[in-house]
Structure formats: C-alpha cells, structure tokens
C-alpha cells in the first residue's frame, strides 16, 4: 500500500516558519521530500493539504506542491511496475536525483563545473572533501539539515579525529559553503536555512606564517659547490624561479625559448591566464645560457622534464608537474642539508624568499606587478609576512632604555 500527500512539518526555522514537504508512505514506511518552501502555520490548510488563499503567494506555492506531488507519483507508479521494487528510502533518493535538490546532487554539479574548467587538481581535492562530508553526514542529506551544530561537529571530527590542520578544516567548510551557495542560486535551497555568516557558522581563515630564505642563505645556494648533476639542475630551476620574483613551478617548468625575447621574459600565467613581461636579470641570464648550450632541437622547452609530453593534455601535464615538484622538493631537501640551511627548502619557498628579501624596500604597487596579483590587497596581505623592519624598530625603541 502506497500513498503520497503534502504536509507541513513540525520543526520550524529561526523565522518561525514551517517547511512544506511531500510525505511518501509505502508498506507502512514513511519518508519526506522537502520543497524548500516555508510558511507560517496559520496559512496551512490541514484538511485540504494546501496553502490557504490568504497567503500572498498561495497560487504559486500550491502550484509547486502539485508539481512535486506529480513528480513523486510518477516515480511511485514507475516503481510499482518493476519486479524489484525500491524501498521508500531508495524511492526518495531516486526522486531527489531527478530534482537535484539534495546536497549530493548539487555537489555533483559543482564538481562537474570545476572539471569542465580543466582544474584537475582542484577537482580531485574538492571531490575528496565532498565524499568525506557525505560519509560523515549521510549520502541523502538535504540542505535544510545542514545546520550550525552539524558543521561544528564535522569540524571537530576533522580536527580531532582525523587530525587535520585548522587551515584544512577551513577548506572543507569553504567547499560546503560553495555548494550551498550554488543551491541557493538554483533555488534548490531556502535562504532562511543558510547556516553560514554572522551569528551562525563563521569561516575564519587562520593566519599562516610564510618563511623565506635570508640573503645569507641565498648566497649559500648561489655559491654551492660539490653538487651532483641532479641537484645542480634542481637548484638552477629554483634560482630561476626566485630571480623572476617567484614564478610558480607550473610556469617555470613550461618555459619555452620563444618566451625569451629582447632581454625579457614573456609568458602567460597558468593560474589566472594573465600575460606577464619581466626583464631577464643578469643572474637569470647566466643560468639560461648554460641550458642554451645543450638546447634540444626537438623541443622548444628550456627544461627537459616535460619534453615529449603533450602540453595540450591538461590532465597529463598536471599529473606530470605534480611528480616533478615532488622530485624537485626531495632534491632541495638534500641540498639544504648539505649546505646546512635549517629551513624546509621547497620550490614554493622561492616565492616566499623573494618576499622576504624585498621586505620594505619596494613600493607595494610595484610588488603587485612583480607578484602578478590581481589586487593590491592580496599583495599587502602576502607581503605583511615579510615587512618587519618598522615593527622591529618600534619594539627596540621600547626596550632600549
């Protein structure tokens, strides 16, 4: 025996309004499909299972209810015609999948949008975050069920049981919020249920201290001797990145000879598709000259790591660069140990090192151009990690008594 009807659920939101739902009963088991709409109890006609005419949006709401009842009924009839009938829970999931109204369905759209932009690393990372949240909260969770207590519980689970860093926990929450926002824009969730923001769950990004190399440590790298061929090559790539104000490895490893013209470097950043032009410093020119002597006639790439790889295949290139970065960082660790540099030497620290050396010396607007930041605010936040001269003076002026 199966039945479908509209009902007003008993749990209200913070505005004192109650959710309109479709009740599905089969074999004495009941489940509810939420429409995403809320009304005050006084506007609900219990006998007729519809919104009273006195409600300002009664016509539209009742039309929505009829539409949802029709969808549920169609799926129920379809289910009755097959041999292996779905349980009431599976029936609910089947209807929700068609409507894309639950978190899992909207997450699939969110991930597909990332994948279509060929952001493969981001896609894999976000997919993992979605899967972990669904494992914690349940595959069938709906947006109105994602509230502040659930988010706090999930954050605690990640930090204390899964031993994730605070910044990692924040990234999970940003992912959940992005999917919720997508649902709001598609009218698949109710804004009254939104659990993020002031007075609710606030996402606070913890400050991360960026540490770069000092001038003395950079000199150790520049004057390093006794390195094997692999170490020397890795160090050359690192130094070239540093000399070009911290060019990311994704860009430096795809550097072509055709990008170098008239004493300047011209390239398009892979991160944000920006065109960049930088003068080639003398120190960078010396490194490039050493590679020009062994230039390959079969490839325009300055460095050999991606030669033979189809550079139009974004997925393959990203996978390869990930492996290259890991290998480079391993070599840099050995170099740091050999030169007695007591810092974690990685490819990305080249960017931090440039920031540390520039410190308070260069105007912030010029640094914005060198870093290729879209906003000067981003540059100010980034450079604040290294601008310590004024604070050091202030501290000493107090203590020198």
From TrEMBL:
Keyword Chaperone applies: no
Cited Gene3D superfamilies: 1.10.150.130, Intergrase catalytic core
Annotated organism of origin: Christiangramia fulva
Lineage, opening ranks: Bacteria, Pseudomonadati, Bacteroidota, Flavobacteriia, Flavobacteriales
Entry-linked SUPFAM superfamilies: DNA breaking-rejoining enzymes
A GO biological-process term: DNA recombination
InterPro entries in the record: Arm-DNA-bind_5 (IPR035386), DNA_brk_join_enz (IPR011010), Integrase-like_cat_sf (IPR013762), Integrase_catalytic (IPR002104), Integrase_recombinase_N (IPR010998), SAM-like_dom (IPR025269), Tyrosine_recombinase_XerCD (IPR050090)
Protein name: Recombinase
Tyr recombinase domain sequence ranges: 208-396
Annotated transmembrane regions: none
Family designation: Belongs to the 'phage' integrase family.
DNA-binding listed as a keyword: yes
A Pfam family that the UniProt record links to this protein: Arm-DNA-bind_5
GO molecular function: DNA binding
Keywords noted in UniProt: DNA recombination, DNA-binding
């Amino acid at each position: 025996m199966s039945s479908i009807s509209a009902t007003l659920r008993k749990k209200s939101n913070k505005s004192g309004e109650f959710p309109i739902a479709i009740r599905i009963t089969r074999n004495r088991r009941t489940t509810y499909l939420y429409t995403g709409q809320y009304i005050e109890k006084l506007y609900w006609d219990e006998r007729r299972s519809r919104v009273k005419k006195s409600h300002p949006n009664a016509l539209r709401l009742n039309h929505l209810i009829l539409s949802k009842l029709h969808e549920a009924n169609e799926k129920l009839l379809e289910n009755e015609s097959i041999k292996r009938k779905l349980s009431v829970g599976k029936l609910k999931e089947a209807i929700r999948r068609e409507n894309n109204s639950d978190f899992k369905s909207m997450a699939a759209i969110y991930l597909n949008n990332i994948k279509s932009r060929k952001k493969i690393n981001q896609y894999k990372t976000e997919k993992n975050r979605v899967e972990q949240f669904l494992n914690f909260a349940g595959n069938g969770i709906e947006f109105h069920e994602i509230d502040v207590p659930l988010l706090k519980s999930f954050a605690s689970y990640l930090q204390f049981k899964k031993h994730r860093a605070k910044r990692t926990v924040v990234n999970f929450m940003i992912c959940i919020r992005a999917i919720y926002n997508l649902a709001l824009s598609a009218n698949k969730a109710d804004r009254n249920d939104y659990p993020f923001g002031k007075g609710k769950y606030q996402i606070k990004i913890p400050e991360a201290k960026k540490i770069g190399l000092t001038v003395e440590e950079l000199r150790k790298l520049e004057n390093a001797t006794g390195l094997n061929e692999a170490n020397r090559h890795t160090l050359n790539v690192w130094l070239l990145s540093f000399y070009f104000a911290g060019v990311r490895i994704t860009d430096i490893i795809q550097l072509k000879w055709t990008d170098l013209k008239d004493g300047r470097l011209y390239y398009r950043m892979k991160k944000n598709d920006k065109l960049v032009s930088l003068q080639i410093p003398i120190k960078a020119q010396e490194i490039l000259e050493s590679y020009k002597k062994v230039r390959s006639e079969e490839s325009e790439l300055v460095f050999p790591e991606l030669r033979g790889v189809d550079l139009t295949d974004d997925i393959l290139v990203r996978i390869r660069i990930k492996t290259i970065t890991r290998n480079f960082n391993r070599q840099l660790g050995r170099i740091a140990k050999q030169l007695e540099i007591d810092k974690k030497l990685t490819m990305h620290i080249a960017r931090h090192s440039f920031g540390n050396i520039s410190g308070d010396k260069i105007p912030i607007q010029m640094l914005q151009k060198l870093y290729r930041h879209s906003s000067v605010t981003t540059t100010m936040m980034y450079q604040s990690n290294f601008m310590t001269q004024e604070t050091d003076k202030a501290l000493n002026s107090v203590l020198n008594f």
